[in-house]
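Input.
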Amino acid sequence: MLEILPETHDNILAVRVRDKLTIPDFDQYRNMVRDLMLKNEETHIYYEMVDVDWINPVATIENGLFDVIHGLDYGRVAMVGEKKWQELSAKLASTVKKHGIRYYDLADKEQAMKYVLEGDNPTPTP
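Output.
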């Protein structure tokens, strides 16, 4: 299941995925990313996985090809997860992204969101 988070705005897409990821989930995600990429120089992504126990293999391949084609259009990308295979998939996908992917454990999701929203050098609040 794909959930769009409230932090989604402008050139930022924030999503949470749970349970099983299907082809329609990936299609919705890719369409949203594609739309943002058409409107913005860089698109920043927050991608959180919670209790994901199955991902459709065809959708994974399609998503990987999309990433290869559009890798330079990505800005800051944070992947948040709770399993070793998720960290490994982030490292693999990181190779085709302009700025790579930063992987965070689920306990550090606030830090991951802050990175996506503000980057490494957030502007100080008055």
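The CA atoms of residues 12 and 117 lie 7 Å apart.
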